[in-house]
Amino acid sequence: MSTPPSKPCAVCGRAITWRKKWERDWETVRYCSDKCRGRKAEARDPSLEQHILDLLAARASGATICPSEVARAVAPEDWRGLMEPVREAARRLVARGEVDIVQGGHVVDPSTAKGPIRLRRRPG
């Protein structure tokens, strides 16, 4: 039996890789961890995704934005607390095929990217 392909977490967008213990219920696995299961998708998450898409739409084709730009647009006074939720929203958009996460001009795996990232609308 071949292992099923990985799928994105419904909350953080990180890749969930198949495990033997999930063999019987792989189709129902939606979260990568207990933390994500407890949080589920918060009410602000769809608006963060939309802010990312809106900022990218206002830029030239192929241009990038920093996740901090999105956080500052949503909460100018308290933007630092939104950095991880913005990165999570970006990973979900990557999973849907709408944006790419880049570092140094190269597309990177959103589940393993560390450090500063940029967001770019996916060409096509």
Briefly note the CATH topology name of the largest domain.
Answer: Arc Repressor Mutant, subunit A
Identify the CATH homologous superfamily of the largest domain.
Winged helix-like DNA-binding domain superfamily/Winged helix DNA-binding domain
| CATH class division of the largest domain | Mainly Alpha
CA-based shape: globular
Q: Mind describing the biggest β-sheet? A: 4 strands, antiparallel
Q: How many domains is the backbone divided into?
A: 2
Class by helix and strand content? alpha+beta
- Helix share bin: 25-40%
Cα(first) to Cα(last) distance is: 35 Å
Number of strands: 6
State Rg: 15 Å
What's the architecture of the largest domain, going by CATH?
Orthogonal Bundle
Helix count equals 4
The proportion of residues in beta strands is: 5-15%
Order of helices and strands: EEHHEHHEEE
- With strands numbered from the N-terminus, the spatial order across the biggest sheet is 3-6-4-5
Poorly predicted residue ranges: none
Average pLDDT = 88
Give a short summary of the structure.
With 124 residues, this protein is α+β, with helices and mostly antiparallel strands. It has helices at residues 34-39, 45-57, 67-74, 83-95, and strands spanning 7-8, 15-16, 64-65, 99-103, 106-107, 118-121. Helix 2 (45-57) packs across helix 3 and helix 2 crosses helix 4.
